[in-house]
Amino acid sequence: xxxxxxxxxxxxxxxxxxxxxxxxxxxxxxxxxxxxxxxxxxxxxxxxxxxxxxxxxxxxxxxxxxxxxxxxxxxxxxxxxxxxxxxxxxxxxxxxxxxxxxxxxxxxxxxxxxxxxxxxxxxxxxxxxxxxxxxxxxxxxxxxxxxxxxxxxxxxxxxxxxxxxxxxxxxxxxxxxxxxxxxxxxxxxxxxxxxxxxxxxxxxxxxxxxxxxxxxxxxxxxxxxxxxxxxxxxxxxxxxxxxxxxxxxxxxxxxxxxxxxxxxxxxxxxxxxxxxxxxxxxxxxxxxxxxxxxxxxxxxxxxxxxxxxxxxxxxxxxxxxxxxxxxxxxxxxxxxxxxxxxxxxxxxxxxxxxxxxxxxx
Length: 361
Hints:
By secondary structure, this protein is α+β, with helices and mostly antiparallel strands. The chain has helices at 2-20, 108-136, 140-167, 172-183, 190-197, 208-221, 262-278, 294-303, 320-324, 350-360; strands spanning 22-29, 36-40, 47-52, 57-62, 68-74, 79-85, 89-95, 98-105, 233-235, 241-243, 251-257, 283-289, 309-311, 332-336, 342-345. The protein has a five-stranded mixed β-sheet, covered by helices on one side.
């Protein structure tokens, strides 16, 4: 009983803070008398608190369950201000003529957000600037020079992100930073995102940005190399159910294609060549068609000499296997090993022949 009492004493400050909720005391010169300001959550319709302005001052009170991004909305002057906050005691002071000079204090998370805006985002702005300039460069020398500057800017930005994550592992703003860096990354480096995300703890994991990142990572890991292939069953051209597990013990190239997909049809000769070379060496292909018209599907199979098993539910992009693997473009393929583990993805042209030679010769 004594230990329980001591534990409750440690919890008491946190419980008191949650009960007290947040208070935002604002003084913004230039706000019209009696205008309404309000604090919103995920959307502007999600109003957390509102107040009437008196002599440029207002007080907002309420309670939130986690530290996250909110929006202070000032309709009378057509402005919105981001507030990273939990149940904090926040003070806002400034002038509506110059919002860049508004001071916000009382929230450690918002101080982290201001650091992100001041130090990290400008570094990525440089990256985007040099990337745009390089794409529009008209000479080889110009492109080479810009490529060096782009690489330098990119390294500075990535180092800045890593330093921020290392220093602010528990800040919810770090989850925002990771979402921002992933959204602006043209390569969508999931492994880098995963490494950085695994460093977070505490409040950094209890916000909408972190939940969105968890979903991104969960989806990215579906069908990833090294994971088990998702089992599925669909009908073949004769209406007979075929399951991926029927091919256990073989290397299986699960090939997503359609009769209407030009790049798929152009790739088919490479798949045919690979199939013919290795079909007697523990290798086969399982075609997943995104067709809607069965006759078009059958005609393409015959015309392209696709002699391996073909399945489809004729549901276009709503094909159940396509949705299970989160396929968003075709052609795509997944090479599944004899034990059901995915060993490679998107092998096309010479890369397919090279990989099969490595595995089967």
